[in-house]
Design brief:
The complex is a heterodimer of chains A (about 180) and B (about 130). Chain A is α+β, with helices and mostly antiparallel strands and about 180 residues long. Chain A has six helices and six strands, in the order αβααβββαααββ. Classes of the chains: A alpha+beta (about 180), B alpha/beta (about 130).
């Protein structure tokens, strides 16, 4: 039975050209390992590989730091965020997605921020990122991840929510990178 | 004061801060889990070194990728250098970027904007 299920997953992953997919505790070593995989697979495709690495790292570190679900990745160390990530390829574009739990009170703020970014032209996004970078730090992290995603994403950039409970939503961030080619 | 020498990791650059030669070199990728914590010893070294305005600083940055948190820390580095230069110290910076890497070139231009010391954008051919 398990073999059949695995084969279905294998076939579906191939059909959907799934490059990376997982749901786990997102630790920094995991991010480093997968960033290296991205570089090995896409290293010859410049500047695409740079943007793909940047989008992946920002999304994964967002899960690591901001997922509302935490767990220990190993012995010692601070708890890391739990979430899922997918990188898939369709004709001429790469889709990078993250999914994780978020406190309901943070959902509307995040949606507003993404709406603002998606309403901006690329040059306006760059200028806004620059202003944010120069603004005083308001926490342990720079809070620039969303801005970086907006600037690095050449295609669609969106956020969607699904209600999980009174306290939590499940948030999915999607970034599309145009490759201009159909890779094997 | 001691030199600061940090070997590169999977997500951190090679760092060499040398009091004797007045050199600061960062080489590699920079996307640590916590950029503020990572850069803290660099800032401490810089603050101590810059206590004496007679000391020149030659800074070389060859960063092939850095995340958004690190970009803010790099801006902090450049602002510290600029304050030092405005006090009369000798500061020079070389920002390396690979051929075709427009984002890295743009980042260099953004950091160079308005600084009072020589900020050289260096194209690394074939990198």
């Amino acid at each position: 039975m398990d073999t059949k299920r695995m084969h279905r997953v294998y076939t579906r992953s191939g059909r959907n050209r799934m490059l990376i997919t997982f749901k786990t505790v997102v630790s920094q070593p995991l991010i480093e390992c997968l960033a290296q995989t991205i570089k090995e697979q896409w290293g010859s495709e410049k500047p695409l590989v740079g943007n793909l690495q940047a989008v992946f790292v920002e999304m994964a570190q967002n899960v690591l730091h901001h997922s509302a679900e935490k767990a220990n990745a190993g012995a010692g160390g601070a708890p890391c965020g739990v979430g899922m990530m997918e990188i898939s390829e369709e004709a001429g574009r790469i889709k990078v997605q993250s999914g994780n739990l978020i406190l309901r009170e943070d959902s509307s703020r995040l949606a507003e921020q993404v709406d603002w970014w998606t309403s901006c032209e690329p040059e306006e996004r760059k200028q806004r990122l620059l202003r944010q970078r120069k603004a005083p730090r308001q926490g342990p992290h720079a809070g620039l991840g969303l801005a970086e995603l907006a600037v690095k994403t050449s295609g669609m950039f969106s956020v969607d929510f699904e209600t999980v409970s009174e306290q939590y939503d499940f948030v999915v961030i999607t970034a599309i990178l145009e490759t201009g080619a159909d890779h094997e | 004061m001691n030199d600061l020498n940090l070997e590169s990791g999977a997500s951190t650059p090679d760092v060499l801060l040398s009091e004797g030669s007045g050199a600061m070199r960062l080489t590699g990728e920079c996307y640590p889990e916590n950029a503020v914590e990572y850069f803290r010893p660099l800032f401490q070294w810089m603050d101590e070194y810059m206590d004496d305005r007679r000391r020149p600083l030659k800074v070389e940055m060859s960063l092939s990728y850095f995340n958004s948190s690190s970009s803010k820390c790099l801006l902090d580095v450049v602002e510290r250098l600029d304050d030092y230069a405005r006090q009369g110290a000798s500061v020079m910076l070389w920002w390396h970027y690979a051929e075709g890497d427009e984002d890295l070139l743009d980042s260099g231009k953004e950091l160079a904007d308005g600084v009072s010391f020589p900020f050289h954008l260096v194209l690394d051919q074939g990198a």
